[in-house]
Amino acid sequence: MPLDDLLASARNAADAALGRAEAAGASMRERLSGLGDLSQFGGDKLGEIADGVNAAIPLITEAGYALTALQLELGIPPKIIVRAAQSAPVTPERLDELRARAEALPVGSAIVLAFLKAVALSENVTLGGLKAREIELEIGALPAVRLIYSRA
């Protein structure tokens, strides 16, 4: 095969490979184009959750807990983790009053209600001499409540 034919063949193969790479890139861009919308959804949802946490903090404080940590996870889906430590005992009657006030909140009622249920549960459960001293709420697509036990 003469040199010119070999160069032409190599050029054709390179052009074909470049065409396939460009097509693959276009396909990938098309598939990933929706991520902008998902990340916007995440930011909007995170803002809604933050509003709920801000509305819940005063009632959490009145329930005898002090906010000790707040963790934001910026992902899809986003989540906020609120940790609070017991600062003062609260009567069951006071918890009932706070529950009624929480139900009237336009934003954050679910957060406060979940927290108050955890407070009530923590008052009734002791594990091997340990007492629930902190409560952690994970607020996101799959919510969770953690009771953190320690010695007095």
Structural summary, described in words:
The protein is of the alpha+beta class and 152 residues long. 57% of the residues lie in helices and 24% in strands. Helix 2 crosses helix 4 and helix 3 (92-103) packs antiparallel against helix 4 (109-124). Strands 1, 2, 3, 4 and 5 form a five-stranded antiparallel sheet that branches. A hairpin with a 2-residue loop joins strand 3 (126-127) and strand 4 (130-139). The radius of gyration is 27 Å and the shape is elongated. It contains four helices and five strands, in the order H-H-E-E-H-H-E-E-E.
Q: Provide the helix percentage.
A: 55-70%
Mean pLDDT over all positions: 79
Distance between the termini: 88 Å
Rounded to an integer in angstroms, the radius of gyration calculated over CA atoms is 27 Å
Structural class: alpha+beta
> What fraction of the residues are assigned to beta strands by DSSP?
15-25%
Strand count, sense and barrel status of the largest sheet are:
5 strands, antiparallel
Q: Which descriptor suits the 3D outline? A: elongated
Reading the helices and strands in chain order gives HHEEHHEEE
List the total number of helices.
4
SS elements, strand count: 5
Unreliable stretches, pLDDT < 50, 5 or more residues?
Answer: 31-41
